[in-house]
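Field log, afternoon session.

UNIT: design team B
ACTIVITY: writing a sequence onto a fixed backbone
BACKBONE:
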C-alpha cells in the first residue's frame, strides 16, 4: 500500500496530462480487472473481476490529476510566466521546484514586492536556468504544464507527498480491487481525469456508466493544526464520511449506508462537513436524472501545497470500509 502510494504520488500528472498515471494504474490493476477501458477525456474505467454481473452497478471514483502551472509566456531573458491549472495558492509557491513532463526542473522566483500580500502569480516566474528565450524554448514551450516536484516521505505513520490529492484516493481504489474477493455488485473503479479544473472526467464517465450508486474517494481538509478553522476532522481518526461540502449534499441513504458499514465492522470514521471545495461526487450526483452519491474522504493537511500530509491508517481504513460495503447488500 505505502509503496503504491509513494509511486503514485511521485508521478507527473497535472489535469489533462494524466498519461503516466494511467499507464501505472493499468499495470497495477491488470490482475483484478474483468475489463479496462478509457474514454475521450482520459478516464480509466476498470470493471472489477470480483463483481457479479446483475448486482447494483457501483462506481468508485478517484481522480488522477493534480494541480499544476501552465506556461503562458517566455520572455527574452528566458523566464517563464505561468497561470494556474486548478486551485493554487500563490503564497505556497516561491522557492518551490516544479517539474515538466520532460523531466525538466524549474524554480519559482518572485519579483521584488512591497508586501507579502503582493506576491501574486503575475509577479512570479519559473526559472529553468536558460540564458535567453532561445535556450528556454529548446526546453519548454508555451502551453507546457508543470507539477510540483517533491519526493514522498513516510514517518510516524504519516505520509507526505506532492499529490496526495488525489493519488491517495487512487491508491485506495487499487487496494480495494486487490482486496475484494467477491461482491454481489457490478463494481467499477473509475480513475478520473481533470477533477481539479471542474470535475470534467467524472462528468463524462458517470454519464457513460450510469451507476446506481457512486462513491468518490478524495481528500478533505482538517481542523487539527495550529489556529485552524474549526472542523471536526483530524488526521488518524479514520476516513471521513461526507455529509456536505461546498458543492454537494451527500445522498442521505449513501451516507447512512457508509456509517452503518463502518459501525458494524468497527472501522473508525469521522463525520465530515467541509465548508469549501468539492469532489467528483458532485458531478456524478447530478449526472443524467441523478445518482445516489457520497464521498469517503482521506483527511489531509496542507491540501493543494507541495507537501500534503495524510495518516496511513486512515488510508487503510478507507480501503476496509469500501471493501466491507461492496461485499454486503446495498439498501439505500
Ligand atoms: Co484538489
Ligand atoms: Zn481532490
Amino acid at each position: 500500500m505505502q509503496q503504491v502510494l509513494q509511486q503514485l504520488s511521485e508521478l507527473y500528472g497535472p489535469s489533462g496530462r494524466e498519461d503516466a498515471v494511467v499507464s501505472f494504474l493499468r499495470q497495477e490493476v491488470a490482475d483484478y480487472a474483468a475489463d479496462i477501458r478509457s474514454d475521450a477525456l482520459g478516464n480509466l474505467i476498470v470493471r472489477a473481476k470480483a463483481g457479479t454481473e446483475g448486482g447494483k452497478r457501483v462506481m468508485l471514483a478517484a481522480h488522477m490529476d493534480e494541480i499544476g502551472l501552465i506556461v503562458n509566456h517566455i520572455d527574452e531573458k528566458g523566464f517563464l510566466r505561468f497561470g494556474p491549472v486548478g486551485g493554487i495558492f500563490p503564497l505556497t509557491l516561491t522557492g518551490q521546484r516544479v517539474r515538466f513532463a520532460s523531466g525538466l526542473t524549474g524554480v519559482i522566483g518572485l519579483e521584488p514586492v512591497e508586501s507579502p500580500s503582493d506576491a501574486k502569480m503575475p509577479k512570479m516566474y519559473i526559472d529553468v536556468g536558460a540564458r535567453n528565450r532561445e535556450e528556454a524554448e529548446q526546453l519548454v514551450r508555451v502551453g507546457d504544464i508543470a507539477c510540483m516536484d517533491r519526493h514522498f516521505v513516510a514517518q510516524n505513520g504519516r505520509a507526505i507527498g506532492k499529490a496526495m490529492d488525489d493519488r491517495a484516493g487512487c491508491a485506495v481504489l487499487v487496494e480495494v480491487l486487490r482486496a475484494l474477493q467477491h461482491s454481489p455488485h457490478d463494481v467499477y473503479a473509475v480513475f478520473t481525469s481533470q477533477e481539479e479544473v471542474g470535475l470534467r472526467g467524472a462528468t463524462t464517465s458517470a454519464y457513460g456508466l450510469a451507476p446506481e450508486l457512486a462513491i468518490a474517494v478524495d481528500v478533505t481538509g482538517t481542523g487539527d493544526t495550529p489556529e485552524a478553522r474549526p472542523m471536526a476532522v483530524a488526521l488518524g481518526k479514520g476516513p471521513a464520511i461526507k455529509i456536505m461540502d461546498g458543492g454537494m449534499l451527500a445522498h442521505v441513504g449513501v451516507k447512512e449506508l457508509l456509517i452503518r458499514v463502518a459501525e458494524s465492522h468497527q472501522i473508525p470514521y469521522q463525520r465530515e462537513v467541509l465548508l469549501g471545495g468539492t469532489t467528483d461526487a458532485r458531478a456524478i450526483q447530478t449526472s443524467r436524472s441523478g445518482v445516489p452519491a457520497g464521498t469517503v474522504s482521506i483527511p489531509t493537511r496542507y491540501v493543494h501545497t507541495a507537501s500534503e500530509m495524510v495518516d496511513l491508517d486512515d488510508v487503510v481504513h478507507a480501503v476496509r470500509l469500501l471493501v466491507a460495503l461492496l461485499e454486503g447488500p446495498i439498501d439505500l
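LOG NOTE: The chain has a mean pLDDT of 97.
NEXT ACTIVITY: expression trials, pending approval
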